[in-house]
Amino acid sequence: MKTKLVRTKKSLKPTQIMTPPWATREMMALIGTKKFSDEDTYLFEPSCGDGSMLQTCCEEIHKVLLEKYRGNKEQALADLCFKFYAIDLCSEMVVKTRTKMYEFLKSLLSDCNKDVFSSYILARIIHEKIEHKDFFEFMKGKQNCGNK
Fold it and tell me: Which of 38, 82, 100, 108 has its CA 20 to 30 Å from the CA of residue 72?
């Protein structure tokens, strides 16, 4: 997703352009989804928008993890929950992304042995993994951590 400024009569207004799922799958194929089976490889989405791109990426990563864990759905889901981190400047989009990812991960959980506690854990993970932050401020903080 990209955000661009659109001129209105009074000022510049940010708009969002969402990346369609087919384009996301093509990008993931170019990156090579097999890389995500490595425990040190993560997905960072700096402008998550409504979560469509993030969900599509996670769908592709989940396929790779199912292969890695020889069909063990619980292990693949557990690993997937720690494979992504997303931020967005727009708090309304963060809410949409959290909701979309919760529903997606919950659908994967339905294939596993689930209970109310498991759903709660998913909700907590998503809350921590998808945040309302400015990408450039986020990156400044990351650069400062190495300079201490």
Answer: 100
Residues 82 and 127 sit within 8 Å (Cβ to Cβ): no
Domain coordinates in residue numbering, the chain: 20-140
Backbone angles phi, psi at 144, to 5 degrees: -70, -30
Of 122, 107, 1, 105, the closest CA to residue 53 belongs to: 1
Concatenated DSSP letters of 76-140: HHHHHTTSEEEEES-HHHHHHHHHHHHHHHHHHHTTS---HHHHHHHHHHHHHHEEE--HHHHHH
Nearest C-alpha neighbor of 81 from the set 65, 69, 95, 97 = 65
pTM of the model: 0.78
**pLDDT digits (tens), the chain, 148 positions:** 455 545 555 554 566 788 899 999 999 999 999 999 998 899 999 999 999 999 999 999 999 999 999 998 888 998 999 899 999 999 999 999 999 999 999 888 876 766 766 777 888 888 889 999 888 888 887 665 544 4
The H or E element that residue 60 is part of is helix 52-68
